[in-house]
Design goal:
41% helix; D-Maltodextrin-Binding Protein, domain 2; six-stranded mixed β-sheet
């Protein structure tokens, strides 16, 4: 009961610290202050596909490897929402970033964010959105969750917001109309700002359902099976292009090519291949922009 109460408090804190008030989120890992003042280090941003601490652990060895190959320091920059990471790229405050597919589509359209490479995972360069519910619930599909508590990951997320919103659009519903409000007048859907937090919310009974990134879900199936065992997948979306690594429109061409070469060849040496294996990536590959057209089409239809 204490643990459940703590998790509820944690998610409420995340919700209350949305994009307008990110400083209210009090997590255990430091977030970089404003950057690029007389600083020539290469900077990489990590979008919070999973929570900040988990993201740091996930990417730490890879960034250390890239730094070694570049022959200079690479500093990790973290922000608490996809929009904040996109803003860093837009303003030229970082050199490359690990982001999700939805933010790429937005950033590419808004300020020319460019693809660098994408991961191939289990032989595929695509992923899905999973609609998940508590394992012992009776829900069979998204429509069964009308009027229930639902967790989205981030407003810019494809798998964690856009896809389920599109599903509702097809039946002339919106998140507001479909999930409704509680007795105090607050919306029954909320944002957790990472896919692992959404999965935990469902596992601990804090949400009746959630839409999550299949890659994050399958990673947790291997690393945190006790949490995944408390959930069940009830819907799987069509495939979407994998979350890419991106660079600003005006990146130095030499650095862009060096980063691409390092990542595309990472699986070819023992150290790099070991790091990739530990985070369940086969290798990095070139990916065409049209891999994200289905996301663009959903955004266009909804808007």
């Amino acid at each position: 009961m204490v643990r459940r109460a703590y998790l509820l408090f944690f998610i409420i804190v995340v919700i209350s610290g949305c994009i307008d008030k990110p400083e209210k989120v009090n997590l255990s890992i430091a977030v970089e202050p404003d950057i690029r003042v007389d600083d020539t280090d290469v900077r990489v941003a990590i979008a919070p596909v999973v929570s900040l601490k988990e993201s740091y652990v996930y990417y730490e060895e890879m960034i250390r490897y890239i730094s070694k190959k570049l022959g200079g320091p690479v500093r990790i920059v973290q922000r608490r929402s996809y929009q904040e990471v996109n803003d860093l790229i837009k303003n030229g405050e970082i050199d490359f970033a690990f982001i999700s597919s939805g933010p790429y589509v937005d950033g590419n359209a808004e300020f020319g964010m460019k693809l660098l490479v994408a991961p191939r995972i289990h032989g595929k360069t695509t992923y899905n959105s999973y609609i998940i519910v508590p394992v012992n619930s009776s829900y069979g599909n998204l429509l069964d969750l009308r009027g229930k508590r639902f967790a989205f990951s981030d407003p810019l997320s494809n798998s964690g917001k856009l896809y389920p919103t599109y599903r509702l659009f097809l039946i002339n519903e919106t998140p507001d109309s479909f999930f409704g409000k509680d007795e105090s007048g607050r919306a029954k859907f909320f944002y957790t700002y990472s896919h692992d937090n959404s999965i935990i919310a469902v596992a601990e009974g804090l949400a009746d359902g959630a839409s999550v990134d299949s890659l994050a879900y399958e990673y947790m199936r291997n690393t945190k099976p006790d949490i995944i065992s408390k959930t069940r997948i009830i819907e799987v979306s069509p495939p979407f292009g994998n979350p890419p690594i991106v660079v600003p429109k005006d990146i130095d061409p030499f650095l862009e090519q060096r980063l691409k070469d390092i990542l595309l060849n990472m699986d070819k040496d023992d150290e790099g291949n070991k790091i990739l294996s530990e985070i369940m990536i086969d290798r990095f590959v070139n990916i065409d922009d049209n891999a994200y057209d289905s996301i663009r089409e959903m955004r266009k239809i909804i808007k």
